[in-house]
Amino acid sequence: MPPTPGDSRAAANAAAVLRTVLTQGPIARSDIPKLCGLSPAAVSRQTTALLRAGLLRELRELPGPSATADPGAPGRPRIPLDLHTGPVGGPLAAGLHVGVPNSTFSLVDLRGRVPARRAFPHAGRSPDGLPAAIAGELARFLEEFDTGRPLLGLGAALGGWVRPADGTVVRHDALGWHGLPLAAELSQRLGLPVSVDNHARAIAHAEILFGRPEARSSLLHLFIGNVVDAAFGIEGTVHQGPGAAAGDVAHLPVPGSRTPCACGRTGCLQASVCDSVTGAEAVRRGIVPEPSVNLLVDAAATGDPRADRLLRERARTVGRAAALLLDVFNPAVMVVSELSSILQDCYLEEIRDAAGDPDRYGRRIVAPHAGPAVLPVAAATVLLAPLFRDPSRLT
Q1: Residue 57 sits in a domain of what CATH number?
Q2: Which domain holds residue 107?
Q3: Distance CA 304, CA 223 (A)
Q4: Which tens digit of pLDDT belongs to each residue from 261-277?
Q5: What are the DSSP E strand ranges found in the chain?
Q6: 233 and 281 part of one domain
Q7: Pair 129, 229 in one domain
Q8: Is residue 2 domain-resident?
Q9: What was the pLDDT predicted at 61?
Q10: Separate counts of helices (H) and strands (E) for the chain
Q11: What residues are paired with 119 via a beta bridge?
């Protein structure tokens, strides 16, 4: 008898099997029970349902010497299973990251790999007209890259205060969005299931699913962009807090910073390190012609010592803020999403050095596992993370 969708035990069992294959696959079906703690009969039921739903697939042979059972022993070959990421039939999730200057569209498979992505500039778009413009361009992107693979839906991520329960952007000052029912609007225009979350939480979910194993124990994520925010996860669950308002660190006081903030204080994290402030400082110093962190990073990469100096200053400020958060949360791993440190290890080292106490924190401060693809992957993970928690919704 197939499991009933929504049944909590069936959902937990299906999730255990799917996540075992995610972390260990390709893997023989007979090896799954001892890794996920289920009986062979329960694993057999769940793998059959997950195969039927198109989330798993059987491979021809298991790589390596364990491809078949012991040649001297009776029994069937050990048919390996893996997530269905094949170009024929493997499902995809669409991703949308809404930044301030532009949006990024992506297609992402069940292992967090990105076969297609595209940027969409926001220049000339009003806050009220931007959701419709994004939906229209995203629809064209999905049509262009439609290869017949099943599309599970759309995950959307952005900064600010986002309430994932109903897909509402409660407040995003930089975009001028307040109380915007983004999930409903995108779903209506695209005809797809849509899930929306804050981008700091989305990256935390992506690290837990696809990143370093220690992230599943405890994870602290700090996002540095036009918006600065954070997320904390423990035992695979990312904290939202009442009203999904957790993670607002814009006004975290940074030791040593005297930068004025719009709140009336000085030394607030966002006012000290956000992209718009850093870009404006780069223009003031004559490094770049317009306020763009991307141009600043490019200038540093071509050997401009002024650009390198400014990026190191920002990295040290981020590192001092990271130290405060590390002292409070003491996670197994801290992920910092900041453009220069994602692209160049020297700026990540600067963040680590400024955080101090290397014996205590060591190499726990890391860049996102997906590197420059962090936002396309994270956006789609807003849809994929609930699926890995409850794949019975598709079975």
Answers
A1: 1.10.10.10
A2: 92-203+375-393
A3: 25
A4: 999 999 999 999 999 99
A5: 27-28, 56-58, 80-83, 92-98, 102-108, 116-121, 151-158, 161-163, 168-172, 177-180, 194-198, 218-224, 228-234, 237-238, 333-337, 365-366
A6: yes
A7: no
A8: no
A9: 64
A10: 14, 16
A11: 104
Domain endpoint, select from 58, 83, 108:
83
How many domains in the chain?
3
> What pLDDT was estimated at residue 49?
95
CATH number, domain with residue 101? 3.30.420.40
Query: What's the chain's Rg over C-alpha atoms?
Result: 22
**Domain end among 83, 113, 129:** 83
Can you state the angle between helices 275-284 and 305-329, rounded to 10 degrees? Answer: 150
Residues 18 and 158: their CA atoms lie apart, in Å, by 28
What is the residue type of 92? L
Convert 212-243 to b/e letters by CB count within 10 Å (16 or more is b): eeebbebbbbbbbbbbbbbbbbbebebebeee
102 and 31 in a single domain? The answer is no
> Any idea what DSSP says for residue 31?
G
Whether 58 and 112 map to the same domain: the answer is no
CB-CB contact of 152 with 386 (8 Å)? no
- Condensed to tens digits (0 to 9), the pLDDT of residues 53-82 reads 999 999 976 555 444 443 433 445 578 999
324-367 residue pLDDT tens: 999 999 999 999 999 999 999 999 999 999 998 777 777 899 99
Contact assessment for residue 217 and residue 236, using Cβ atoms and an 8 Å cutoff = no
